[in-house]
């Protein structure tokens, strides 16, 4: 059985520069992944084979990226019960609004979780959070990541303020 946990499928190699961000997120949490180029319209047979075989291959989550009339995530989701995260890719002339609507507007019955246009990093994070449901160690690492994000906000806030006293007034414990 494959060790790979996340399958990343993209419609074209032109999606690759954006989808590298996804692998960065997965690598940060030590999650194994594979990348595949397939297309719901240019190579539907390959897409169907991949989607239908994903669960047996040991995958836990599929991330699917496409631009334009971006039906790839929805088509894959229709052929597997694995959670599918769609990444709308920005291409000309509509710069990703077409991709976003195509992915986010899945009709009832076949859900696709959709991240922002070009939101490949968040797709990786969301996959990690799904995997963390069954992996306490991963969950702890995600928690540390969140703490790091909060610490960076604090850092920026402190840098913005002129003196330490003001910084403390709005610091830890203050939810506003
Ligand atoms: C989609 O068409 C791909 O996901 C890509 O975003 C877009 C353009 O593909 P190329 O013409 O660059 O191969 O299927």
Provide structural commentary.
- The chain is an alpha/beta fold and 176 residues long.
- The protein folds into two domains: 6-134, Rossmann fold, CATH 3.40.50.1970; 136-171.
- Helix content is 46%, strand content 14%.
- The chain has seven helices and five strands.
- It has helices spanning 16-28, 44-53, 72-77, 97-104, 120-132, 136-160, 164-169, and strands at 6-10, 33-37, 61-67, 84-89, 113-114.
- It has a five-stranded parallel β-sheet with strand order 2-1-3-4-5, with helices on both faces.
- α1 runs parallel beside α5 and α5 (120-132) crosses α6 (136-160).
- The longest helix is centred in the C-terminal third of the chain and has 25 residues, at 136-160.
- The mean pLDDT is 94.
- 5-O-phosphono-beta-D-ribofuranose (RP5) binds at residues 10-12, 14-15, 39, 66-68, 89, 91.
End-to-end separation in angstroms reads: 49 Å
Question: What's the mean pLDDT score?
Answer: 94
Strands ordered across the widest β-sheet: 2-1-3-4-5
Q: Oligomeric form of this entry?
A: single chain
Tally of individual helices: 7
Q: Provide the list of bound ligands, each named once.
A: 5-O-phosphono-beta-D-ribofuranose
Largest beta-sheet characterization: 5 strands, parallel
Q: How do the SSEs run, as a string of H and E?
A: EHEHEHEHEHHH
What is the number of independent domains?
A: 2
Beta-strand residue percentage = 5-15%
CATH topology of the largest domain: Rossmann fold
CATH class of the largest domain: Alpha Beta
Helix-and-strand structural type: alpha/beta
Low-confidence stretches: none
**What's the number of extended β-strand segments?**
5
What is the share of helical residues?
40-55%
- Annotated CATH architecture of the largest domain: 3-Layer(aba) Sandwich
- The shape, in one word, is globular
Radius of gyration: 19 Å
């Amino acid at each position: 059985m494959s060790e790979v946990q996340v399958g990343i499928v993209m419609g074209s190699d032109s999606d690759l520069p954006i989808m590298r961000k996804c692998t960065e997120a997965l690598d940060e949490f030590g999650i194994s992944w594979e990348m595949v180029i397939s297309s719901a319209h240019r190579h539907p047979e390959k897409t169907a084979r991949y989607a239908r075989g994903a669960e047996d291959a040991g995958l836990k989550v599929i991330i699917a990226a496409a631009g334009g009339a971006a039906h790839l995530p929805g088509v894959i989701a229709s052929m597997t019960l694995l959670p599918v995260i769609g990444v709308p890719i920005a291409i000309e002339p509509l710069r990703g609004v077409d991709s976003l609507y195509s992915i986010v507007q899945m009709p009832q019955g076949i859900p696709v979780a959709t991240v922002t246009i070009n939101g490949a990093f968040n797709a990786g994070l969301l996959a990690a959070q799904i995997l963390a449901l069954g992996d306490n160690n991963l969950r702890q690492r995600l928690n540390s990541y969140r703490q790091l994000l909060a610490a960076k906000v604090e850092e920026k806030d402190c840098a913005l303020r002129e003196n330490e006293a003001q910084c403390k007034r709005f610091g830890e414990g203050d939810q506003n």
